[in-house]
Write a structure and sequence with these properties.
alpha+beta; four-stranded mixed beta sheet; three-stranded antiparallel beta sheet; 20 helices; 9 strands; about 50% helix; about 10% strand; globular
Length: about 500
């Protein structure tokens, strides 16, 4: 082939690619939907990809450009996203018209990672409905009450460790190292029926594999996640995995051995695996083989290990740097201890209003998910973006985001939104339609009760036995890490822990 011919082919391909990209990025312009001008290939993700801002602030900055619209356009790389900023429209999409938006966008390749791709979050349509119906009883009040003592034992192991190490002089810890150990132990015992103490045995396999699997701050994991969400064909071609085969094998072996032991020894526990075991012979529900059980238990572990532990890191930081809040919270704890004779009950901790407010305010200020997503499954008409425009018809496959972090930091809905103020949850200020930490509608977080109880028990036991104080390494206010996909601190969560000489007996 002559050089001139080859050059012509290359130039033609480049021109075609240019116009293809240009056509994709003019999507919202053609629809007259407000949007911020995207960059070819990177779309509106450029500031985050180039590590100039966090993903949370990236979306918040664009959200703030369009205060008078019901929604605006956003490009996740080349994929157009409708970001809904009007609470009434969010409610309409997520609840009233749920059947039009019942799915999430997948981010795990079914062929490469069959176990991880079968988790509840990724399931669609009727398969999701069947699985949700089956797993929901795992998180009822009665099941939470049954798991309460198991969580308390994990919290006691945690505080015993802190007391023994810190003493009256105190010791500084990075809570980003401590909290995953507690979360690991809670999920291991409540979901898998395995008793683990990650403080006495910090290198146990369950913890090490979990830490490896759930490291969403890792550049490798972040790259794999973004590739599968946005360029699935390329990710599949290069066989890019989010979770290693080692992680797959470990969790499958754990579930297999747990099921076998329970079958042989007649063991019954109030957990997710037990429910799935009992459903194995149900002809009208999903088929439960070991792979299906492993998939559901795995996503439970994923959420409990990483997401909840990060939230608890933010919670203890705010309690430590706000001594008035810590003092008020400890007063409530000591009231409960007196009422229960130093034996806190599920009902007592669940009824603590200020503790509930502290946890909720943490999750408002630092929501685990920057946005919640939905995928349109059948044609739906969005109202005009502004009163002078026309309605927009969404097609199956179109993507919707609810900007959780942006709504939680909007002064229209929260006074002084950057301030940590638990009282806002006690004085009637918070409108539940703009508090989306656990999502909204039928596809909200199935494990929200579990997560809240896990965090509350940890805070209760820590403040019962320890004082939390800022250290020279403590960064306040927190600077969010621009490199991480999950919301976390740029410099860790360094705090000094000091054992208390409390007038309330710890026996």
């Amino acid at each position: 082939m002559e050089f001139s011919t080859l050059l012509l082919i290359v130039l033609t391909a480049v021109v075609c690619l240019y116009y293809f990209v240009l056509s994709k990025l003019s999507y919202f312009e053609r629809l007259k939907i407000p949007h911020f001008r995207p960059i070819p290939l990177l779309g509106n993700m450029a500031p985050f990809i180039l590590r100039r801002v966090t993903m949370a602030d990236n979306l918040l900055n664009i959200y703030n450009l369009f205060p008078d619209t019901k929604y605006f356009g956003f490009f996740e790389f080349m994929q157009p996203i409708y970001v809904i900023r009007d609470p009434n429209l969010i409610n309409s999409i997520a609840i009233k018209n749920f059947d039009y938006f019942c799915d999430h966008k997948g981010f795990i390749n079914e062929e490469l990672e069959p176990m991880a791709s079968r988790n509840l979050f990724a399931l669609r349509g009727d398969h999701w409905r069947e699985m949700r119906k089956l797993l929901s009883p795992s998180f009822t009040s009665s099941k939470m009450k049954a798991m309460f003592e198991l969580m308390c034992q994990c919290a006691k192991n945690f505080t015993d460790f802190l007391i023994a190490e810190s003493g009256n002089t105190g010791k500084t810890y990075d809570m980003e190292d401590m909290m995953p150990r507690y979360s690991n132990d809670v999920v291991a015992t409540c979901a898998f029926g395995i008793s683990v103490d990650s403080f006495k045995h910090p290198n146990n396999e369950f913890y090490l594999l979990g830490k490896k699997a759930m490291n969403f701050a890792s550049p490798r994991v972040m790259f794999a996640f973004l590739m599968h969400r946005n360029f699935p064909k390329i990710a599949n071609f290069f066989r890019i995995r989010i979770f290693s085969t080692e992680v797959d094998k470990f969790f499958k072996d754990v579930v297999t051995s747990t099921v076998k032991a329970r079958d042989e020894q007649g063991i019954v526990r109030p957990d997710m695996i037990q429910l799935m075991m009992e459903a194995r012979n149900n002809d009208h529900g999903p088929i439960f083989d070991i792979d299906e059980m492993t998939a559901q238990a795995f996503v439970f572990f994923l959420a409990g290990f990483d997401t909840v532990s990060k939230a608890m890191c933010f919670a203890v930081h705010e309690v430590a740097v706000n001594p008035d809040i810590q003092s008020k919270l400890r007063e409530e704890i000591e009231d409960v201890l007196r009422e229960t004779n130093n034996k806190p009950t599920y009902e007592a901790i669940n009824g603590m209003k200020y503790l509930d407010a502290v946890v909720n305010e943490t999750l408002r200020l630092y929501p685990p998910a920057v946005f919640a997503d939905r995928v349109c499954v059948k044609e739906f008409e969005l109202p005009p973006v502004t009163p002078d425009e026309k309605p927009i018809t969404l097609k199956p496959g179109d993507n919707i985001w609810f900007p959780v972090y942006a709504l939680h930091h909007d002064s229209q809905y929260y006074s002084q939104p950057k301030k940590f103020d638990p009282d806002r949850f006690l004085n009637g200020e918070v409108d539940n339609s703009v508090y989306l930490t656990f999502g909204i509608g039928p596809r909200n977080c199935i494990g929200n009760r579990f997560a809240l109880m896990e965090a509350k028990i940890m805070l209760f036991y820590m403040l019962w036995h320890c004082n939390l104080e800022p250290d020279a390494k403590t960064r306040n206010p927190i600077v969010l890490d621009k490199k991480a996909l999950a919301m976390t601190s740029e410099n860790g969560f360094w705090l000094k822990v000091r054992a208390r000489k409390s007038s309330v007996s710890t026996e």
